[in-house]
Amino acid sequence: MRNLVLIVAITLLTSVSGIAQEINWVTLEEAIELQKETPKKIMMDVYTVWCGPCKMLDKNTFHNADVVAYVNKNYYAVKFNGEGNDVVKYKDKSFANPNYSEARAKTRNSAHELARYLQISAYPTIVFFDEKADVIAPIRGYQQPKQLELYLKLFKNDDHKDIKTQEDFNEYYKAFKAEFEG
C-alpha cells in the first residue's frame, strides 16, 4: 500500500510540476499545423519496426529526462515509420507506400515514399526541419542522449548556419559542453 501511495504521489507531483515523462509525439501534418501558431523546429524520428537501434533510441534516448524536457520545450516531435503504410501530406504532396505488404508488417517492408523523398538510407535517422518545415539535416544512426543534445542545440540555436566546412563542425564539436545526463 505504501508503494502505491508513493507512486500516486510521484505521478501527481509530476503532472502538477509539468515535467513530462515522455516526448509529446505528433504526426508530421500536426507538427506543420502547430508551426503556424507557434513556430518551432521539428525533430522527426524515422524508424522501422524491425530495427534494433531504433528500439534502443526510443528506450534509452527518447525516454531520457533531459531529452524529453528539451524536445518538448523546443521542438515538435514526430515519429514516422519509414516502411509504414500511412499517407502523409508534406509540401503539397501526398506520400504513401504503394508496395507496402501487410504480410510483412512486422518485418522488413518496402520504403515509404516520404522516406525516399527525404533520402533516408539507414534506420534510425532523425530528420530536423526548420520553422517552415524545410529540411535542415538528417542525422543517421543511434544517438545517445549527449550525442543527440549536440544536434538538438545546434539546430535549435541555428548554429548550423555558421558551419560551412568539416573544420567548422569539428571546432563546434570540440567547444560543445554537453549538459544532459546519460
Written overview of the protein:
There is one protein chain. By secondary structure, the protein is α/β, with parallel strands linked by helices. The chain has a single domain (19-175), classed as Glutaredoxin (3-Layer(aba) Sandwich), CATH 3.40.30.10. It has helices spanning 2-17, 28-37, 52-61, 65-74, 113-117, 145-156, 166-175; strands spanning 25-26, 41-47, 75-81, 88-90, 93-95, 125-129, 135-140. The strands form two sheets. A five-stranded mixed β-sheet has the order 1-3-2-6-7, with helices on both faces. It has a two-stranded antiparallel ribbon with strand order 4-5. Strand 4 (88-90) and strand 5 form a beta hairpin. Helix 4 (65-74) packs parallel to helix 6 (145-156). The longest helix is centred in the N-terminal third of the chain and has 16 residues, at 2-17. Mean pLDDT is 91; it is low at 1-18.
What is the 3D form? globular
The helicity comes to 40-55%
CATH architecture designation: 3-Layer(aba) Sandwich
Task: Report how far the terminal alpha carbons are from each other.
Answer: 32 Å
- What gyration radius follows from the Cα positions, in whole Å? 18 Å
Indicate the CATH class: Alpha Beta
SSE arrangement, N to C: HEHEHHEEEHEEHH
CATH superfamily: Glutaredoxin
The biggest beta sheet, please? 5 strands, mixed
Low-confidence stretches: 1-18
What is the number of helical segments per DSSP (H or I, 4+ residues)?
7
Multimeric state: single chain
**Domains (count):** 1
Beta-strand percentage?
A: 15-25%
Beta strands, count: 7
Structural class: alpha/beta
Overall mean pLDDT score? 91
| Major sheet: arrangement of strands | 1-3-2-6-7
